[in-house]
Write a structure and sequence with these properties.
By secondary structure, the protein is an alpha+beta fold. The protein has one domain: ApbE-like domains (T-fold). It is built from six helices and eleven strands.
């Protein structure tokens, strides 16, 4: 089971961690000669942060929010993210929206999954088949770990982050968790932005890839107690939600991923 932190080189297994986008990002590759691709993947994620961070005054998104550059003039990456955000808004009936209540644009709810999917693609395109990329609970993986077993992922207890309540084996699919227990109230319901989201405290989604899991996990959390039902009706997705009372609800196919 994966635990974030540290760097090591152990025979055919290499793992490195960097703090990027304000969070620990861990990459593990089962190969003896992966040093170069680690740096390429981390450099890519640093570049994404430089472009999309709302905390950097010179980022492209900050310049857009100040009206210094318009959408037709921005980078291709920015246009891609805006198109994904618009698609997700339509598919979630408006529960995903990168425009904040104050009118500013914050694409962080989709950029993390998008960036991790792209970083994983860089690793795969370099010829590495067995890898695990974890950015604050948004996870892309492929193949097997150094022991030749399926990668496993622990779902944390939002009331005690040192406790794991479920361990799943996604078998190459993407995983994303949205919640308020680590980053606070950073997600809101676009239909009622003044209301605090307190019905559920976390929802974990397994989807076709990390981007798909991430964008729908964010929207499902914004839906509150209805979010798990939304995931249930999405073909190819499964979810596990924990409410404010500590009660867990899972979709009908989620049990197939639980490690026995």
């Amino acid at each position: 089971m994966k635990v974030v932190g540290g760097e090591y080189y152990r025979g055919i297994d290499m793992k490195k961690m960097r703090i990027i986008m304000g969070m620990p990002i861990e990459i593990e590759i089962v190969a003896p000669d992966a040093a170069d691709i680690f740096e390429k993947a981390f450099d890519y994620l640093v570049a994404v942060d430089r472009r999309f961070s709302t905390y950097k005054d010179d980022s492209e998104i900050s310049r857009m929010n100040r009206g210094e550059v318009a959408l037709p003039e921005v980078s291709e990456e920015m246009r891609d993210v805006f198109a994904l955000a618009a698609k997700t808004k339509r598919e979630t009936h408006g529960y995903f929206d990168i425009r904040r209540p104050d009118g500013l644009i914050d694409p962080s709810g989709i950029v993390k999954g998008w960036a991790i999917r792209n970083a994983a693609a860089l690793i795969r395109e370099a010829g590495f088949e067995n890898y695990f990329v974890n950015a604050g609970g948004d996870i892309a993986m492929n193949g097997t770990n150094a022991a030749g077993e399926d990668w496993s992922v622990g779902i944390r207890n939002p009331f005690n982050v040192n406790e794991i309540v479920k361990v799943v084996r996604p078998r190459g699919r993407g995983v994303a968790t949205s919640g308020s227990y680590i980053r606070g109230d950073h997600i809101y319901d676009p239909h009622a932005p003044e209301q605090k989201l307190n019905e559920i405290v976390s929802i974990t989604v397994i989807g076709p890839d990390v981007l798909e899991a991430d964008r729908f996990a964010t929207a499902a959390f914004a839906m509150g107690e209805r979010g798990i039902a939304f995931i249930e009706q999405l073909p190819g997705f499964e979810g596990y939600a924990i409410d404010k009372d500590g009660t867990a609800t899972m979709t009908s196919g989620f049990a197939a991923y639980i490690k026995r």
